[in-house]
Amino acid sequence: MKTSIILFVASILVCLPKVENLLTASDTEGGGQKEDDAVTNVIYDTDMCTDVDDVGALAILHKLSDEGLANILAVVYNEVHKRGVAAIDAINTWYGRGDIPIGAYKKTLKDPDYSSYLAAVAKYENDTPSDLSKVPDALDVYVNTLKAQKDNSVTIVSVGFLNNLADLLRAEPELVERKVKKLVVMAGVSGDNFNTVRHDLVGEAQKVLEDWPTLVVISPIGEDIYTGVVLENVEDNPVRTAYYKWFNSSFQGRSSWDLLAVLYAVKGTELFDEQSEGNGSLRNGYTYKMSKEKRIFITGKFSKSYYEALLNTYLIQPPTNTKVENVVCDKPVDSSADCFFDLMGRRVSTPETGLYFVNGKKVLYR
Ligand SMILES: [Ca+2]
């Protein structure tokens, strides 16, 4: 298994001398360093516990950070599982960012959720104290993080319940208005049946959707976009273990709601369409009007297979700072020729429609 990954990397190295630019070439062309405002400053608010797409989404966020497109300011946890914070920390640590502040929801939730994978993920290296009273409060992390940022510069991505956000809005509405550029909420547009209602929190969801002072973008898509099966082919890591455990010790593809919310938060209209017509509603009867400035939702603009290939590409990539040493290629590759590699790292002589690595760039071959 490891050998195939090494050969994959080795093949790319031979094919592409400038491997460090593999995924960033288009971002740095002509201008060197990206402008500050081209980097999306993100606070990730997750219920990582029941479902595994929160893990995949955090992985995507790290890879977008590796590309220089995102900057993870903090992660806050809106569930109450006792291994949740340590698992988040373990994933951050795996990606070389173990110092990212993490805040936990310190109140109780009705009927807390079970997790099939958090305990296993929390065993990977992390420095979260076992005494959870020492973990910072999510509200404090939000406030301290926002205070340290420039005005109108923070994107919050909420892929779970809205309890932390409602607390923040009640405590510091002016800070939110000043610092937050955009809030992306993974939820259904109408009649959402999980993130806005679970744990009897629909009132908190309404508080946010009704009073949030900046643009709110609802991200309802991803149910039919399956990702993660490719993790079988990479070396052991916390993201791989989460998916493996979630599927009862097997590798399958899981719906990608949270991954797409993160992808939109960073890539925006490059990959998604924004819609501002119609209404949104919650299951308690609260209805709100979509409008360009305040409340919109997104739809996909590419095929299901495109999003699956793109997200899977991110999921299988190791952290940028992983050292690849003593790599050897199985055979010499002519670097002047096009080299197509599929997501498993296999060289492909007759590519069909899909995403490949070709001459140093991710290419959608049609
Ligand atoms: Ca979630």
Profile the largest sheet. 8 strands, mixed
- Choose one word for the global shape: globular
CATH architecture classification of the largest domain: Alpha-Beta Complex
H/E order of the elements?
HHEHEHEHHEHHEHEEHEHEEEEHEEE
Q: For the record, what is the CATH homologous superfamily label of the largest domain? A: Ribonucleoside hydrolase-like
Task: Please give the domain count.
Answer: 2
Small-molecule binders = calcium ion
Please tally the helical runs, counting DSSP H or I stretches of 4 or more residues: 12
Strand fraction band? 15-25%
- Report the strand count: 15
Could you tell me how far the N terminus lies from the C terminus, measured between alpha carbons in angstroms? 29 Å
Question: What's the mean pLDDT score?
Answer: 86
Q: What's the CATH class of the largest domain, please?
A: Alpha Beta
CATH overall fold name of the largest domain: Inosine-uridine Nucleoside N-ribohydrolase, Chain A
Given the helix and strand composition, which structural class is it? alpha/beta
Low-confidence stretches: 1-34, 321-336
Strand order of the largest sheet: 3-2-1-4-5-6-12-9
Proportion of helical residues:
25-40%
Cα-based radius of gyration, to the nearest Å: 20 Å
